[in-house]
Design a protein that fits this description.
Radius of gyration: 33 Å
Shape: rod-shaped
Helix content: 55-70%
Number of helices: 5
Strand content: under 5%
Distance between the termini: 116 Å
Length: about 120
């Protein structure tokens, strides 16, 4: 007795094996969650770095005589930009001395102060 391939398919009790599909979907979901967690951590680190730089900038402004609430009270736009540029990256003492001497050289200290 011969059976055609198509006619026998509905009579056979064979379990559908979807384990590979389920594993693939589970891996895809896990990778998406890991990516999302990594992006969140990176966003937190960037915000922490930005807050740290803002705090340093406010400290510099306070030292130079500005008030924390007033933006650019003590610093001009160019000076603030220069300080931000110095705070980026690793500390280089030679570069720091060069920039500080160019900005706060003899001319800066010879200038009359209105408050005194």
């Amino acid at each position: 007795v011969h059976y055609a391939r198509g006619s026998n398919a509905e009579n056979v009790l064979r379990r559908k094996d979807e384990s590979r599909r389920q594993k693939r979907l589970a891996r895809k979901e896990r990778k998406a969650e890991e990516r999302k967690a990594k992006e969140e951590q990176l966003r937190r680190l960037k915000n922490a770095r930005r807050e740290e730089l803002d705090e340093r900038l406010n400290q510099v402004k306070n030292v130079l005589g500005g008030e924390e609430g007033k933006p650019d009270a003590a610093l001009g736009g160019a000076e603030e930009e220069m300080i931000l540029k110095l705070m980026e990256g690793d500390y280089n003492p030679e570069k720091f001395e060069q920039v500080m001497n160019s900005v706060y050289g003899d001319d800066y200290y010879e200038k009359e102060d209105e408050a005194w």
